[in-house]
Design goal:
267 residues; Rossmann fold; seven-stranded parallel beta sheet; two-stranded parallel ribbon; binds 1,4-dihydronicotinamide adenine dinucleotide; binds D-galactaro-1,5-lactone
């Protein structure tokens, strides 16, 4: 198998549970980590329960690891204190430990909420300035900048995967644009891990959905081609042709409901 040991953080989460089995073919041992319960280790697995904010624990977590899929952390809007510990300190601890242990590559689960203040009428690419829509989004911008710094300073390569909405199927009209099927997610991770040179790359994680807001041409060297599309759910969210209400923040901005969540939101 290509890797001796592949680390997945966030293994107890929604995506972690899906990836746990799907990434097995890529490594002799998959090391699973989360602050939450991951159950028993199955064949070819190691389980390390720890808090990403615990620097000493994260240092040990990275020992003997070839590559990392960093999916752990707070995944929606929260207080600054919680985000600072899990996403800001946590991601720093992970990169510093990766550097000390000579890890070569990380895939960072970034988010569309790094750019959620663009409008749904905008078409952007990896060079468009970040416009986070929440403290959560700001923490993902931090992860993207931190990984850029570690690449320039130490040579660790990172693909920042700006995931849209990775769930079994779209559950609202916005997700007809942002949906990222599990199969396409796994294929994007395969491209991110096995393309020989990625440097520091930003890849938007979405299926081939009509009306996309995101241009992935700056990540073409990864060769990622989504196979799924939200069109097969079109009957659930028919386009009526009506314009959304002018004051409906959730339809005006790419970040949708995140613009109205969290400590800063006041109506
Ligand atoms: P999730 O919330 O289900 O999973 C995140 C996991 O991280 C949880 O199991 C949680 O226990 C763990 N975690 C939280 N704080 C931690 C800490 N301090 N130390 C160790 N572990 C900690 O989220 P989901 O949907 O599985 O997302 C995984 C990653 O992908 C997250 O980083 C999220 O921000 C990112 N993402 C997911 C999207 C999606 O559509 N599912 C969209 C964009 C980004
Ligand atoms: C995210 O970043 C979240 O982790 C996920 O739970 C979804 O809310 C997703 O974005 C989205 O924008 O749909």
């Amino acid at each position: 198998k290509p890797f001796k040991r592949l680390l997945l953080t966030g293994a107890a989460g929604g995506l972690g549970k899906i990836l746990r089995d799907r990434i097995k073919p890529w490594a002799d041992v998959v090391r699973l980590s989360d602050i939450g319960d991951m159950g028993e280790a199955r064949e070819g697995e190691e389980i390390v329960q720890c808090d990403l904010a615990d620097k000493a624990a994260v240092f040990k977590l990275l020992e003997g690891v070839d590559a990392v899929l960093h999916f752990g952390g707070i995944s929606t809007e929260n207080t600054f204190e919680n985000i600072m510990a899990a996403n800001i300190a946590g991601t720093y601890n992970l990169y510093e430990a990766a550097h000390k242990h000579g890890v070569k590559r990380v895939v960072f689960a970034s988010s569309n909420h790094t750019i959620g203040y663009y409008k749904t009428t905008d078409y952007i690419d990896a060079d468009s300035p970040m416009r986070p829509d929440s403290l959560y989004g700001v923490s993902k911008c931090f992860g993207e900048s931190l990984s850029r710094y570690y690449y320039d300073r130490t040579g660790i390569e990172t693909v920042c995967l700006r995931i849209g909405s990775s769930f079994p199927e779209p559950v609202n009209p916005r997700m007809m644009v942002t949906w990222f099927s599990y199969d396409d997610l796994v294929e994007s991770l395969r491209c991110a891990l096995f393309t020989p040179r990625v440097g520091h790359t930003i890849l938007f994680g979405a299926s081939a959905n009509p009306g996309s807001w995101w241009d992935n041409s700056k990540a073409s060297h990864l060769g990622f081609k989504p196979k799924d599309s939200s069109t097969r759910f079109a009957a659930s969210f028919p386009d009526t042709g009506a314009y959304p209400p002018k004051d409906d923040v959730a339809t005006i901005y790419q970040g949708g409901g995140f613009l109205m969540s969290g400590p800063q939101y006041k109506d």
